Structure formats: C-alpha cells, structure tokens
Amino acid sequence: MAFDLRTIYMMTALACLVLGALQAIVFMSGRFDRWLAWWSASNMALGFGTLFIGFRDYFSNVITVQLGNVLVMTGCAMMPVAIRLFAGRRVNFWRFGVLVVILSLPMIIAFPDGGSARERVIYGSLVSGLLDLAVAYEASRLARDEGLYTARLTCWLFLATGLIYVVRATSGAVGLFGGGGLFESGAETHALLGLVVMACLALRGMLIVLMAAERAASQLKEAAHHDALTGVLNRSGLVNALQGTPPGRVALLLIDLDHFKQLNDTGGHALGDQVLQAFASTAVSIVGKGDLVARHGGDEFVILLRQQNADEAVAAAERLRLAFSRALVRFDAELTVRPTLSIGVAVESDGGEPLEALLLRADHALYRVKRRGRDGVETYDADRSTAGAAAVRHEKAAVTHEATGMVVDPITYPATSIGSV
Q1: pLDDT value at residue 405
Q2: Domain 235-398 sits in which CATH superfamily?
Q3: What confidence score (pLDDT) does residue 247 get?
Q4: Could you give the residue ranges of the DSSP H alpha helices within 4-92?
Q5: Rounded to an integer, what distance in angstroms lies between the CA atom of residue 245 and that of residue 350?
Q6: Angstrom distances, CA of residue 185 to CA of 116, 182, 256, 352
Q7: Cα–Cα distance measured from residue 126 to residue 123, given in angstroms and rounded to the nearest whole number
Q8: Radius of gyration over alpha carbons of the chain, in Å?
Q9: What's the pLDDT tens digit per position in 16-59?
Q10: What is the arithmetic mean of pLDDT over 106-125?
Q11: Candidates 3.40.50, 1.20.1070, 1.20.120, 1.10.10; correct CATH number of 5-224?
Q12: Cβ contacts of 124 within 8 Å, gap of 6 or more
C-alpha cells in the first residue's frame, strides 16, 4: 500500500492546528495555568511549520524550507517547557530562546535549499528525538513525584516518538529517502513513518489534558482526606489510610494540647493556628514512614504507630512532648500561656481490633493524665480503667473542651479493623 508523503504532512499539520486551537480555547476559559498555553503554542508551531513544509515546490524556500523547519524546531522545543511548567518547575526563558536560535541556525545556514532534504531530515529528526527524550524525562519525574498514571503514559509515548525520530534519521542516513527533494524518491517509507508520528502527535495532545484531569482529581481526594490548616490527615483520611496499610501491631497516641483555649482567648486565633501547625509538623517529623498523624478535632490529634509495643509508644510520646516544647521556643515572645501535651497511649491487644475501641481506651488514659494535672503520658491499664470507667464517663459529661468551649462527646469512627486491613 502506497502512502503519499505530502498528504501525510498536510494531515499532520491539520491535526496539530486543531489540537492547538482547542487547547487555546480551553486555556482562555481561565481554568488552567500557562503550561496549557505553551502546549497549545507548541502544537500551533508544529502545525504551521508542517503545513509550510507540505507546500514545498509551490512556494519559495524561505517559507517552505527555512521558516517551516524553524517553526517545527520551535514547537518541539516548547514541549519540555510546557511540561516543566505543568510540574511547577522553574524555566529559564532566556535559555529557551537561545536554544531555539542555536537549533534553528543549521536549517537557515547549512541546509537552506530544497535539494538538501536528506540532510535536513537527519538533523531535524535527531534534534526532535532529543527534545522528545527531554519531555519523557520530565514526565518520568512527574510520575515519580505525583504518582500520575497519565504521566507514565506520557513518558512512554514520548520515548516511542523519540525512537521513531531515530529510525527516521537512520533511514535518511542510509539513503532510504533518496538524495533529492523531500517529496521525490523514497517518499513511501518516509510517509509510513510520518503516519505513525501523526497518530502519536494526536495522542500526545490528549495526554497533557488527561494529566491535568488526573491531577485535579488527586488534589480533590487529597483535600478531602487532609486537614486544611495543619496538612495532616483528618478523620476520614485516617480511616482511608488504615484501609490501605498492611496488618500488624498498632499503638495509638491520643494527644490533647493543654491550655489551648486559654491561648486562643489571650493570644488570638492566628497564634493558635500557628501552634497547631507547629505541633503537626513536629509530630510528622518524629513518626516513621508507615505511621499516621491525624487531627482528631479541635486541639486533639491521633498518631498511629506501626509495629510498636507499649514501652516504645510511651518513648515516642515523650520524644514528641520534648520536641514540641522545643518547637514552641520561636513563639516565646507571643505566648501568654505555654501549651503542653497530655497523651493517652493504647496498644492493640489482639488482631482485628476496631479503631473506635482503641480510641476509647486511649481516651481513658488521656483523661487520667488530665485529672492528675496535664502535661504527661499515661498508658491504658485495663484494671484501672474498668474500675474508673463510670467516673470517667460522668466527668466527661461535664468537661468543656478547651478548644471549642463545647461539651465533649465521644467521636465515633467507622468500625475499621486495624489489625486485619
């Protein structure tokens, strides 16, 4: 089956121009950052460049050889910029401009006429292949940093097109495209490669938008499972995280910031928010990779420690108290009252214990710390807690929560099995 190279060029130009126009319209909606404008401009440059090349022998070499190839080079060079902007990385636009000039000079000076098509094919293919590899590298970093599935697809697709450009350059070097004009002898092989590239260009144009959609969905999910102020997990995030972790012994720390209501009343809510953020960052810094930190509500937090017994959990709680005290030093000039930590510790007694049951036991331990004067760590003791359970329930009915000024009610979590998920 014969393929007409000029037709393939025109079809590729049309595909790029349509994609670029659609991306420009979407960008003008104001819902996307400037990375989409760069990706749109890249497709438009590729489209017009390929269109001008397709009119070879009908217009002057200045338009169909020099301007057309310069636009193609520019479009290829804009893609790494677009994906770097998408990833939130810095771009040196002066270097980009210099790069475009350097890459375009051979097309203007070394291969300026229509009779040196093979040399232009070899050079242009090698440059385009290298720029596609740069995009594949940026996409691989994006996939690693954000875990985007579409970024991995983008990486593999640009690797594929980079390989196609290498094949194209090699074919030109061994003479498969002939030694005359672009649309002369050997154009069938060139057209077949061009058809494959055209299909890949269409897929590439869609993947960048799909990456944006996947990132938006991921950010929404992240926001739904994390506390907006402190950045740690919220209640639903804690339950969700437990469902995705392997089974094993769990120690739970239930932490209350002492005197927090008084701090809010005298120092202001802005200072209170900073103290909560300082605690959250301190807690995250002392836990292990598989451990979880969550805001329980108000000034209460939960930490789940994996594969730790009671003694290890108490030691971690004491480290947290000391680290938090050190973190407050930078607020000394503003603190009217110095917050401390009351921590109740409970360790899973048997496999598959619900999170709510573990929280209840840690809650008993926490209130023993409160009754003896705050600023300490207490481990759940089954005998002591059974004897004093009625007294604790009676006391909790009358205790006012320091952060909110509301009567404390038990917080109910779904019956998530910790040891069996």
Answers
A1: 45
A2: Reverse transcriptase/Diguanylate cyclase domain (3.30.70.270)
A3: 62
A4: 5-28, 34-54, 61, 68-86
A5: 17
A6: 13, 8, 80, 73
A7: 5
A8: 32
A9: 999 999 999 989 988 888 999 999 999 999 999 999 988 988 88
A10: 80
A11: 1.20.1070
A12: 69, 72, 73, 107
Q: How far apart are CA 224 and CA 174, in angstroms?
A: 58
- The least confident of 156-160, 202-206, 258-262, 363-367 is 202-206
CA atoms within 13 A on the CB side of 183: 16
Among candidates 412, 257, 414, 415, which has minimal Cα distance to 338?
257
Q: What is the helix (H) or strand (E) element at residue 297, kind and residue range?
A: strand 292-297
The structure tokens listed for 40 are 């749109």
Spell out the domain ranges in the chain: 5-224, 235-398
Which residue is associated with the tokens 């969700």? Answer: 240
Mean pLDDT on 126-136 = 93
CB atoms under 10 Å from CB of 39, counted, come to: 28
Q: Which amino acid is at 285?
A: S
Per-residue pLDDT, 3: 63
Rounded to the nearest 5°, which phi and psi values hold at 372? -90, 5
Rounded Cα distance, 274 and 207, in Å: 40
Q: Please name which of 169, 164, 161, 234 lies closest in space to residue 200, comparing C-alpha atoms.
A: 161
pLDDT of 421 reads 38
Q: What is the pLDDT of residues 216-271, one digit of tens each?
A: 888 788 788 888 889 899 888 888 887 766 666 788 999 999 998 888 888 888 99
Q: What is the pTM of this model?
A: 0.67
| HEC per residue, 316-357 | HHHHHHHHHHHHHHHHCCCCCCCCCEEEEEEECCCCCCEHHH
